[in-house]
């Protein structure tokens, strides 16, 4: 599994339509009324990667296993969600279980689709969702501070430090800033707050759900979303739910032609996954042989033994060396054997930092 991404937003902004298109599952109920999604819909999506397709073309394995993303379609949130409105507490719990958050914002006009706030106003929509997520975190922070303050009076230095850190986060929330803003300033705080699984700590990107006219050129709503995202240091992915659904009914070649006609280089799925990987600092490495070509996901900066552990804990424990061929070299030689004969297959030790696209064979002994 690459990562899990929760899809959030107000009711009727197109979350389930986008989920159906992205997951290709067509199993998320999509209707023109609030809370048609109660339990979260989950879709496991293979990560599209042209490099893997190239490797497969020349290795010709018996089995192919791409890395995947889990998209979680979470029911629409409304004002008061942090206090239980519209089953908000239940929905917020679902968000806490994901690695990243994709906030879908309605950026199109359509009189036939009801807007829960009775107007298309991305700035207002974003404020509602971000406020509710922050209020939910503040509730947990208040309880955590109250719990540890009493114990810290005993003179426990570790608890005193924890209370000080939690109070810093509470101050950040009181200022209306997501908790990730403080964590960016003080990354060393992460170990003290992991247990709470705060929502606004999670990386967030905005998904501007547009009509086809706004795919080529941003409309005023998308421009508003981009301004807000820029101020937060967040990314924006523009998706037309209708177009993404239509792409699922086309062959690969037809989909490429359709995207070109729309002036798009890649689908919304590709853009969303790439942005998600960038948000979480993830990369892909490959294992390749006649039996299987498989893609694996690790964090940027991961050392070879850690990457080996993604395959099996025994390989990490008994790690000896890693035989590494960069994707660029494989693309040039089109064969691991030829790359080795040309001196481009390297032996790397425990300190080697895995690079995006590496093709690796791990030597180990247990």
Mean pLDDT: 86
Low-confidence runs (pLDDT<50, min 5 residues)?
A: 25-38, 84-88
Look at the helices and sheets and give the structural class.
Answer: alpha/beta
Query: What does the main sheet amount to?
Result: 6 strands, mixed
Overall radius of gyration: 23 Å
Helix and strand string, N-terminal first? EHEHEEHEHHHHEHHEHHHEEHHEHHEE
Instruction: Figure out the total of helices.
Output: 16
Euclidean distance between termini CA atoms: 26 Å
Question: Would you count the extended β strands for me?
Answer: 12
- Percent of residues in helices comes to 40-55%
Strand content is: 15-25%
Summary keywords:
366 residues, alpha/beta, six-stranded mixed sheet, three-stranded mixed sheet
Summarize the structure.
The protein is an alpha/beta fold and 366 residues long. The protein has helices spanning 15-23, 50-59, 88-96, 122-152, 157-174, 179-185, 190-193, 213-216, 220-232, 241-247, 252-261, 268-280, 304-311, 313-317, 327-333, 336-341; strands at 3-8, 41-46, 63-65, 68-73, 100-106, 204-209, 236-239, 282-288, 292-299, 319-325, 346-348, 359-364.
Protein architecture, described:
The structure is a single chain. The protein is an alpha/beta fold. 44% of the residues lie in helices and 19% in strands. The chain is built from 16 helices and 12 strands. It has helices at 15-23, 50-59, 88-96, 122-152, 157-174, 179-185, 190-193, 213-216, 220-232, 241-247, 252-261, 268-280, 304-311, 313-317, 327-333, 336-341, and strands at 3-8, 41-46, 63-65, 68-73, 100-106, 204-209, 236-239, 282-288, 292-299, 319-325, 346-348, 359-364. A 6-stranded mixed beta sheet has the order 2-4-1-5-6-7, sandwiched between helices. A hairpin with a 3-residue loop joins strand 8 and strand 9 (292-299). Helix 1 (15-23) runs parallel beside helix 10 (241-247) and helix 4 (122-152) runs antiparallel to helix 5 (157-174). It is flat, with a radius of gyration of 23 Å. The model is unreliable at 25-38 and 84-88 (pLDDT under 50).
